[in-house]
Automatic annotation (TrEMBL):
Tyr recombinase domain mapped to chain residues: 163-353
CDD domains reported in the protein's UniProt record: INT_Rci_Hp1_C
Source species taxonomy: Bacteria, Pseudomonadati, Pseudomonadota, Alphaproteobacteria, Sphingomonadales
Pfam families in the record: Phage_integrase (PF00589)
UniProt xrefs under SUPFAM superfamilies: DNA breaking-rejoining enzymes
Record's keyword annotation contains Kinase: no
This protein's UniProt keywords: DNA integration, DNA recombination
UniProt name for this protein: Tyrosine-type recombinase/integrase
Length: 358
């Protein structure tokens, strides 16, 4: 009676000083070198070999969610879809957060109860949980569209949190800018420029950090936050004139940079994330420079996106037409009305006068 196939395993071949992966195939023993004598590294190579072999041998066509690993769905989404998006690092961060909880489960294990359990296990805000589970939902739907799943189970999400009303006063902004100038030497060259760009243009963090000098025309005084070939998404980017004070900052920065490089950079290298808010706890995102500046300035509950909201609020408070604010920020008019109309000095003024006449 033939012996059962034990599957792939490791064997140390002393004469060659390395671990080899051995397995049986079509009645013959086959082997492949891991190229290492370290057991842990060899075990990682064996795990990857088994995973790849399983992928090659899995049944063709879509599978039931109970037979499809969540790790495979996230891997498919991260490798095929993320590179086509505006900010693939966002998807990467979400996948890193999801894998420790979901990595050993099948897509069929997703339910309202397990999603809520993930939220409790993660211990973050509803907004963060919603973004991460939104990535899980997108990955499962992507696998279904690609013909890997027979159907896509529903993924429960927390309710969308209300938009933040937080914006900086002018004294807050001055304190933050001063703190950015007096932080560590390796950040004081780029952090003040990032803050000034965000306050004057209202551009999103990713748009500023990806901005190149080829998109800035200092002679014609224009900034185009849409790089050539960028895929248009719901998060619009503006093409705007450069205000006088910002122009001074940009000319000084241009002398330190190159015509082809990033406007906001660290010794020529792109900054992928400048950090998050200071809420009394250690900064949890990016290089942490923004959070440290907020802490130094004594300003809590402020994120880089707060600077965008501050720009829109200041424009509304100065009586700028809401259509122009929408164009400046790259918003839809409807979204601009929702966020900033109540800051406008003429907000509901016609209605008040009509009520007075009545």
């Amino acid at each position: 009676m033939p012996r059962p196939n034990r599957g792939a395993y490791l064997k140390f071949i002393r004469a060659r000083g390395a671990y080899y992966i051995q397995w049986s195939e079509a009645g013959s023993t086959r082997k492949r070198s891991t190229g290492t004598a370290d057991r842990a590294t060899a075990e990682a190579a064996l795990a990857e070999f088994i995973r790849e072999r399983y992928r090659r041998q899995r049944p063709a066509g879509p599978r039931d969610p109970s037979e499809f690993p969540i790790a495979d769905a996230l891997d498919l989404y991260g490798s095929l879809h993320a590179p086509t998006t505006e900010a693939p690092e966002r998807i990467g961060h979400a996948i890193e957060a999801l894998l420790p909880f979901w990595g050993a489960n099948m897509v069929g294990d997703v339910s309202d109860e397990t999603c809520r359990a993930y939220g409790e296990w993660r211990g973050r805000s509803d907004g963060t949980i919603r973004r991460e589970l939104g990535t899980l939902r997108a990955a499962i739907n992507f696998a279904h569209r690609k013909g890997r799943l027979t159907h896509a189970p529903a993924v429960w999400l927390p309710d969308r949190p209300e938009g933040r009303e937080r914006f900086l006063t002018r004294s807050d902004a001055a304190a933050l800018l001063n703190a950015a100038r007096t932080t560590r030497a390796d950040t004081r060259l780029y952090l003040p420029l990032f803050i000034v760009l965000a306050l004057y243009t209202g551009a999103r963090k990713d748009a500023i950090l990806s901005l190149r000098w080829t998109q800035v025309d200092l002679d014609r005084r224009r900034i185009n936050f849409n790089p050539p070939g960028r895929k248009r998404t719901g998060k619009g980017r503006a093409h705007i004139p450069i205000p006088d004070r910002l122009l001074t900052f940009l000319r000084l920065a241009h002398r330190r940079g190159s015509d082809l490089g990033y406007v906001v950079h660290n010794s020529g290298r792109r900054i992928k994330d400048i950090g998050g808010a200071w809420d009394g706890a250690p900064d949890r995102g990016g290089d942490g420079s923004f959070g440290r500046a907020c802490k130094r300035a004594g300003i809590a509950d402020v994120t880089p996106h707060t600077l965008r909201h501050t720009c829109g609020t200041w424009l509304a408070q100065r009586g700028v037409d809401l259509w122009e604010i929408a164009g400046w920020l790259g918003h839809s008019h409807e979204h601009t009305v929702t966020l900033y109309a109540h800051h406008h000095p003429d907000f509901l003024d016609n209605a008040r006068r009509a009520a007075d006449r009545r």
